[in-house]
Design a protein that fits this description.
Layout lengths: L4 H18 L3 H7 L4 H10 L18 H10 L7 H12 L2 H6 L2 H13 L4 E4 L15 E5 L2 E12 L6 E7 L11 E7 L1 E2 L2 E2 L3 E6 L10 E12 L3 E2 L5 H37 L1 E2 L2 E2 L4 H29 L5 H26 L9 H9 L9 H12 L9
Parallel strand pairs: 1-4
Antiparallel strand pairs: 2-3, 3-9, 4-5, 5-10, 6-7, 8-9, 11-12
Helix pairs in contact: 1-4, 4-8, 5-8, 8-9, 8-10, 8-11, 9-10, 10-11, 10-12
């Protein structure tokens, strides 16, 4: 699609912010295994970058998803994946359902301050026994008068130690046989007045293979009481709402990964042009520069696929199949690009100090988070009508 000057202004604004406010601190944040989310988000909120697609009535810009996609692409210029992932949770994972289906009161209470950067959000879906198998979650919210009482736990929660509230998927009905219709999404405060909400516990801050500067936590809920009005949309529609949120999460993953892949190739070309072995630059070996050409071709193909899915999404169509394809392809291409490029860095590629080493670690998550590759293949097969029992459908 044709991008406008407004698209490019978002790109320029965010690129400038990344170079001045994020990248100079990345190494420090990576070592600390956390970044100051409230500080960074507030600055992004002041720039209008946390509510690009959200309604103007709550502080958003009211633009279509193509503008958010440009922002997601630009986040790929961050020198570590953890910060973009945390921002993506705020914009594309924890708030879409709230923006679409939340009551006016609820959006004023949770969406508006999240857009402003005053609140840090997290998305509470995965559990120890239910990652990609969302229907198997066990966390339960039981109605008690005018409240819900929540018990259970959530695992691998991005922004988990710093989050002010969670967009929490939980079982609100007793119907175990209909696991797609017994779930709801509830806005659950995690912090109030600088203190942890009663019954909410950060069981532990998780140590990860990559994405080091993003704080990831295991959360536990014990008799956490929230007003019933914190329910997003209709009771029992949580699984459906979450599947809708997943589409933007998957488009976010593909958009941001694409920029990171290009940068990995560019950095590797620069390094191998300067690095001499056996009397000539490593890049001058045909196997190396042909491999770079092959990889960039794949990156361009992913870019086209992703934007085709985005156009369908903007037009109100069902982008599920293409978004799943883009998510599948970006995860696998992350692994292929980063592994191939690291090989040509030789011993330096194995060092923490090299950018390709960080890309290798961070990029591996894409094939797992937001729906594993195998789940994407299942969705694609369903749409193709090739699953057993669905022939011709």
């Amino acid at each position: 699609m044709q991008l406008t000057e407004q698209h490019e202004e978002i790109r320029r604004t965010l690129r400038k912010f990344i170079e001045s406010e994020i990248n100079p601190h990345i190494d420090e944040w990576e070592k600390a295994e956390i970044f100051p989310a409230h500080e960074v988000f507030k600055k992004l909120g002041n720039l209008g970058l946390l509510g690009i697609t959200k309604p103007e009535a709550y502080g958003g810009l009211g633009l279509d998803y193509s503008y958010q996609a440009v922002m997601n692409e630009t986040l790929g210029f961050c020198n570590a994946g953890g910060v973009p992932m945390a921002i993506g949770v705020q914009t594309d994972m924890a708030t879409p359902a709230l923006a679409r289906f939340g009551s006016d009161e609820l959006r004023k209470e949770f969406l508006a301050p999240s857009i402003a950067g005053d609140l840090v959000a997290c998305i509470g879906v995965s559990e120890v026994g239910a990652g990609s198998d969302v229907a198997s979650i066990k966390t339960r919210a039981v109605r008690d008068g005018g409240d819900y009482v929540i018990n259970g736990g959530k695992m691998w929660i991005t922004n988990g130690t710093q989050g002010d509230w969670a967009c929490l998927l939980c079982n609100t009905m007793q119907d175990e046989k209909n696991s797609h219709r017994n779930k709801s999404i509830i806005c659950v405060p995690l912090m109030e007045n600088g203190k942890r909400v009663k019954g909410v516990t950060v069981e532990r801050k998780l140590k990860k293979m990559g994405m080091h500067c993003s704080d990831t936590a295991e959360l536990h809920f014990e008799d956490v009481r929230v007003p019933a009005r914190y329910l997003i949309g209709e009771e029992g529609m949580g699984f459906t709402y979450q599947m809708m949120q997943f589409q933007e999460e998957r488009l976010y993953a593909a958009s941001g990964a694409n920029t990171g892949q290009r940068r990995a190739i560019e950095e590797t070309i620069k390094y191998t042009r300067e690095r001499v072995a056996f009397g000539k630059p490593i890049l001058h070996n045909q196997v190396v520069h042909f491999r770079m050409a092959e990889l960039l071709t794949e990156v361009e193909a992913l870019h086209a696929l992703t934007w085709k899915a985005i156009e369908i999404h903007i037009g109100g169509g069902d982008c599920t199949m293409l978004a799943s394809m883009a998510k599948l392809k970006c995860g696998r291409l992350n692994r292929e690009v980063n592994d191939a490029c690291l090989q040509y860095w030789g011993g330096m590629g194995f060092m923490d100090e090299s950018p390709i080493s960080r890309r290798y670690r961070d990029g591996r998550l894409t094939s797992i988070g937001g729906g594993a590759d195998e789940v994407m293949l299942g969705i694609i097969s369903k749409y193709m009508g090739t699953l057993p029992g669905r022939e011709g459908k």
